Amino acid sequence: MNQPVTRFAPSPTGYLHIGGARTALFNWLYARGRGGKFLLRIEDTDRARSTPEATEAILKGLAWLGLDWDGEPISQFERADRHAEVARAMLENGTAYKCFATQDEIEAFREAARAEGKSTLYQSPWRDAAPETHPDAPFVIRLRAPRDGETIVEDQVQGRVTIGNAQLDDMVLLRSDGTPTYMLAVVVDDHDMGVTHVIRGDDHLNNAARQSQIYHAMGWDLPIWAHIPLIHGPDGKKLSKRHGALGVEEYAAMGYPPAAMRNYLARLGWSHGDDELFTDAQATEWFDLGGIGKSPARLDFKKFENVCQWHIAQMEDAALLRDIETYLAAASQPALSQSQKDGLKSALYCTKDRAKSLPELLMKAAFALNERPIKPDEKALGALDNVSRGILKSLTAQLQNATWTREGLETLIGAVAEAHETKLGKLAAPLRAALSGQTVSPSVFDMMLVLGRDESIARLTDATVGAD
Length: 468
Fold this sequence. Notes:
The chain has 468 residues and is mainly α. It is built from 19 helices and 12 strands.
């Protein structure tokens, strides 16, 4: 088989929806796994609703998700002349015709059909009218669709879908003002772009039958169709704002890693055995259309967070730091200083294992980001009573000459606890409060190794000022 060409074709009327992101991902995975091309087309023919801001939001969303496309994005609106050219070619070859019916006449036809209990699909009296009877009046160009028989869509997900041609009308290809309709534009663009596989939501399944008729009318090869089920909320209903975040940019601002989002979205409606957690390399190798189910997938935030936790733990430190910087920018938070970056990098080994999001990771690593003097929160202050501060003061003096390894620190702190007739676990709470200002943090030994001797001693000295 020749190398596949897929495309993602969003309308720039808002943000990149989570459903659109998954459609883009499926197209990207299919193309990238087979050495093909993944193209981007902006379907901006609806000039009243399309905005440059929405286009920018879609491009940013795809870039955040890590889905690179080949070549420049194509504007559907800018190709209107080509769409009209094809409509006129169909007029020439007899697969389309001029229709002079007015809106009032079409509505009158439908009202009469309703009254008689007949189909309201418009049947134009101009379909077989002789050219010499054509008036000098505005007209649309309609497809001369077959009236009998069936149109069959061989779909890689839905199977064979058969639609009776009696259920399909002679759709308008070119409006009376010369502008093309969406149905025509999509087919012409897909053909001209060399798209071999149309992978999109199953809300377009009926469109595939109508669009197939245009392909046949022009004598063009049909693409391979794959109509994927939509994403539903946890309650099984169509995804909406009541289910939470819908736009990719919202997930970026909440601090979820793009790699985890790719993994999770890939599993929404597609499966490879029982594999739940996988890398991009595995996803591109495994992804195929046969693994896509017919039923709608359900968004499950708990499962998504588990995927995030796995990816954060697996990620290379350099990649994780880049994702954190991207998150801070997306959330409109201050960037990290160089010293904070250095501290965070040192702390990742003991903070990234169980974090379910980047904000959670930063919270765990706060001890390495905050500067002296550390201000303990209310709960941590409770651990720094006079007795505890006295023990910490004794420990601080001995840390000057301690062997700065986990084993050396464990031995010394254990000995200090024993000398004061307490347990290591009891001493850990005030030590944690002094070093991090919190009651929840990585182990005190990890924190001391990350902070180093001088900073650890300085924080303990701050916390024990005035202790006996």
